[in-house]
Amino acid sequence: MPRLPRDFYNRDTVTVAHELLGKILVHQIDGLARMARIVEVEAYLGPGDLAAHSARGLTPRTRAMFGPPGHAYVYLIYGMHHCLNVVTEPEGSGTGVLLRAVEPIANIEGNTRGPGLLTRAMGIDKRHYGHDLCSDELHLLAPLHETQEIEIVASPRIGVPYAQEWADKPLRFHILGNRYVSRK
């Protein structure tokens, strides 16, 4: 399966979010590849998006989100869950796509229905902050053949009521009928 090139990420965030669905997330740990199919994502559209961390501007925490496309923005929520975002668009945009749920393919134990659960199951944490997603250790692949047609559902993002009008925007995308999609 071909690795996603940097140009894949250097595009409109909503387009990238749609096209990440069905792609394969791979994390190599001690020679073992943990692999999972992406089934749910959320788009964050930069400083004007009140739900995005980048709405607060460039800070030590958000530095990676303003970095080059195709890198990981990993952060801790509730003091216990890591979340993985894929940085999109040109450097300085502050845009990204949160990976919300994955369908296990190989070498994964545990629940993957939610952003904190998927990172735990995949072994992804703060050490991956700013990590190049075109590297050997942590990357995304395009399946050689789609086994089925993907129908995408759009809905409001989850857990961002503070974001005013941005809370209701349909920027959460998931594969219709996939049993690994998280619940609201």
Automatic annotation (TrEMBL):
Protein's UniProt keywords contain DNA repair: yes
SUPFAM superfamilies per UniProt: FMT C-terminal domain-like
Keywords of this entry: DNA damage, DNA repair, Hydrolase
Superkingdom, natural source: Bacteria
Entry's EC annotation: 3.2.2.-
InterPro entries named among the record's database cross-references: Formyl_transferase-like_C_sf, MPG, MPG_sf
Record's keyword annotation contains Transmembrane: no
Enzyme category, top tier: hydrolase
CDD domains: AAG
UniProt xrefs under NCBIfam families: 3mg (TIGR00567)
Family: Belongs to the DNA glycosylase MPG family.
UniProt protein name: Putative 3-methyladenine DNA glycosylase
Source taxonomy: Bacteria, Pseudomonadati, Pseudomonadota, Betaproteobacteria, Burkholderiales
